Amino acid sequence: MEHTNYVHGYSNREAMRLLDQAETLDEIIHHDTVFSKGSLVLEAGCGVGAQTKIIAPKNPESNFLSIDLSETSLREARELIQSLHITNVEFRQADIYHLPFTDETFDSVLICFVLEHLQNPKAALRELKRVVKQGGTMMAIEGDHGSTFFFPDSTSAHSAIDCQIQLQKQNGGNSNIGRELYPLFKSIDLASVSVSPRMVYVDASKPRLVEGFIKKTFTAMIEGVGEKAIQQGIIDGATFEQGINDLYRTAEPDGVFSYTFFKAFGIKENATSPGGKE
Ligand SMILES: C[S@@+](CC[C@H](N)C(=O)[O-])C[C@H]1O[C@@H](n2cnc3c(N)ncnc32)[C@H](O)[C@@H]1O
């Protein structure tokens, strides 16, 4: 079963982009993706395994069950993880909204770059919480396109970024969901909720991020929606092309680019503990 409304699509190019993105952001996003020894972790919406290949070796004494709607992505993820000889991951096709697991199966849940695509992120989080044990943890990582700024500034580049925001909205998603992680986690009554912004600030003194983030992650993502946005008349071809050129321009020696991801953490509190709202 494929998820047809997924704005980025399931092309090889998008798979490469997700892998580049995860590798580039490894330290910034995952330095604290640490689970206690012996944990069973549900990775929800694993895609082609771009995060799996980072978090599983980082937690060799935990076991991961990584799920996704897309059989195609799961096949790629399986191949990737096998090729890297990572042995603490199993994959399964499943829908986050209707998880085929009994209550309180997992010690932790991780969801990364998925909520932005969902029409009802709160329902998804509620379902994920159902399968977490009392005292278990939930982690979510999302971007927020409203956090983007760059030098030289460019109206065309902002318009091109806005195409992605509009198309995501049409699919019922939200490209600015990073700022909503705190209210979302609170709304499902998680305890000890904390959100930390992970700013990716890039200038020429960080050549790895210039290449890996400005070009291969962010601009590649915006470029990917061009055809559809032009077809739908959200933008004209010339403005979109100018916008993409201007985004690449920020990767020049005097350019600057900044984007902020948000990482949320919460605990499913014991029903009987003080403050527990189960
Ligand atoms: C942007 S990709 C992120 C993949 C991976 N977490 C990463 O960071 O590279 C979003 C993934 O969520 C999956 N997805 C979307 N809706 C889903 C649902 N209802 N249940 C399971 N997976 C879903 C898509 O198939 C896609 O693989």
Topology of this protein?
Blueprint: H1 12-30, E1 40-44, H2 52-58, E2 63-68, H3 71-83, E3 89-93, E4 106-112, H4 121-130, E5 132-143, E6 149-151, H5 155-170, H6 181-187, E7 191-203, H7 207-223, H8 226-231, H9 237-249, E8 256-267
Bound molecules: S-adenosylmethionine.
Residues 3, 6, 8, 18, 22, 45-47, 50-51, 68-70, 73, 95-97, 112-114, 117-118 line the site of S-adenosylmethionine (SAM).
Main traits of this protein?
278 residues, alpha/beta, 9 helices, 39% helix, 23% strand, globular, disordered C terminus, binds S-adenosylmethionine
Task: Report on this structure.
The chain is of the alpha/beta class and 278 residues long. Helix content is 39%, strand content 23%. Strands 1, 2, 3, 4, 5, 6, 7 and 8 form an 8-stranded mixed sheet that branches. Strand 4, helix 4 and strand 5 form a beta-alpha-beta unit. Helix 5 crosses helix 9. The protein is globular. It starts with 11 loop residues before the first helix and ends in an 11-residue tail after the last strand. Residues 273-278 have low confidence and may be disordered. Bound molecules: S-adenosylmethionine. Residues 3, 6, 8, 18, 22, 45-47, 50-51, 68-70, 73, 95-97, 112-114, 117-118 line the site of S-adenosylmethionine. The site of S-adenosylmethionine has 22 residues, from helix 1.
Care to give the gist of this entry?
This protein has 278 residues and is α/β, with parallel strands linked by helices.
